[in-house]
Structures are given as C-alpha cells and as structure tokens.
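Quick question, first post here. What does this chain look like in 3D?
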Amino acid sequence: MDRLIEITEQIKHARESQAQLDAVNKRIKEKEEALRALQQKERELHEQYLKEERDVEKLSTLSFANFTSTLFNTKYEKLEKEELEAYQAKKTWDAIKFELAVYQEDIQALINKIDKLKESASSYRTLIDQKMDLLKERSHVNYTQIAMLEQDAAQKKAIITEYAEAIMATSQVQRQASLVLEVLSKAKDWSTYDMIGGGMIATMMKRERMDDAKHKIDQLNYLIGTMTKELKDIGLHTVSGIDFKSLSVADYFFDGIFVDLSVHHQIKDAMEKMDRLQNSTNQALAQLKSQHEVLLGAFNACEKKMLQLIEQV
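> Answer (accepted):
Ran it through. Tokens below.
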C-alpha cells in the first residue's frame, strides 16, 4: 500500500478516536455533576435515617418521652410509627446508595475507555506531521497552500499566547489592587478611631496596617510594570483610553511622619486610586478577553482548514 494512503487511513482512525474521546469526556463530566448531587442527597437521607433511629431509641429506652408515652398508653403506637419511619428512611437511603454505586461504576468504566482511546487519538498530530513531510518530499501540488496555512496558524497561536499572558498579568494586578484596598480600608478605620482619641493602640494598629499596605503597594507596582510590558508586547499602551503608565502608586503616600488628619486624607486618596485602578483593569480584562476569543476563533478556523486539506490529499 502506498505510504500516503496508509497515513491517510491512520489519520482518519486517530480523528475518529479523538471524537470518541471528546464524547466520553463530556459524558464523564455530566455523570460527575450528577454524582455530586446524589452524594449531597445521600448525606441528607443518611442524616434523616439517623434521626429516625434516635427517635426509636428514645421511645425504647428510659427517657422522658418514653415515660410520658407509657403514662398516656401511647408508647407502643408511637414506637410502631417511629420504627416504620426509620424503616422507610433506611430503605430510601439504601436505594440512593445503590444508585451512587452504579454511577461510580459507570464513571470508572468511562475512565477505562478513555485510556484505550488516548493512545490512538494522541497519534493524530504525529501522523499529520508525517504526511506533511511526505507531501513536501513528493512536491505535492497542495503542499504550498498547506504550508502557508500552517505558518498563518503558527503566527495566530503566538499572538494568542501573548494575549493570554497579558490577561494573566492584568488579572494579577486586579487581585493585588483588591488586597491593597482591603488593607487600606482597615487602615482608614483605625485612622478614624485614632483621630477621635483612640490612643496608643489605635496609632499602633493604624501604623501596622499602613506598613502592610505599603508592602502590598510595592508588590502592586511590580505587577503593574509586568502588566505594562505584556500590553506593549501586543501593541497596547492604553486600553479603552486609559494610560497604564500613570497608574503606579507612588511610595510617598506612606513615607515620613504626618499629622493624623493628613495621614487620613492620604489613605483616602490611595483608596480612590485603587478604585480607579480596579475599574481600569476591569475594562482592560473585558477588552483583552474579547479579543482573545476572536483570535482563538480565527486560529481554530485556520487550523481546521489546514487539517482538512491535509486529510483530503
């Protein structure tokens, strides 16, 4: 058999295996979600069964409930009722335990199936590369078009990676700004208390929170620098009209000794700056994620076209 035909058949088999693998993974996810719901229900039914058992025990042993029931000649009637409820609760609990076991067995069977499909599916990209080499070696008429699509896909993937890095860096700035804002809020509370005569303890707590905020602001400035670099890598110096270079938080906020009122105003100013930073990073993330999705769609379309062309040769 011609090597080109043989590889084409192997690619078809690997693609089918990948499709089955995707379907199995989807079924596992669905069953795991259902399993978690069942596990919660099982815990609730188990608690209900234990409660019914305790009610039976109260009527069966020396207790106030036992005494009053015996006194009014209702003990055996109540005991029969509680035992029936305990039996029904146990029966319901046993039923859901059986259902849980079935789900767990089904999931394990699907996992075992995945192991068999993975090896075949993982060979797809290797076979595609082998076929590309063979087409190049034979100077096939479609090779040039395929090579151009491959280069285009590689360029798109590189840009997608840059956007992913920019999204990560901006998210880190957003999280750090939230931490700074949280500490500043505590410093502001202690500063307010200090101004109305909180004494030495209030002053110490305020200073401690301010030192913590300064440390976190130093970390934030570093992250802002990283974010700015990542944004420049994708050609963005501003996002939605916001200049990120102007958002670094100056150290002078917490340098030196200030009167209580001055320090309080500086804390408020820093909090306002954190608010602006959070708003700007929210806008940036929305824009970056939107563009990332567009680029990802273009990459997938390009790669799909390339792979289809390779398979059809």
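Residues 28 and 267 are 51 Å apart (CA to CA).
The helical segments are 3-60, 64-71, 75-122, 124-137, 143-195, 199-233, 260-312.
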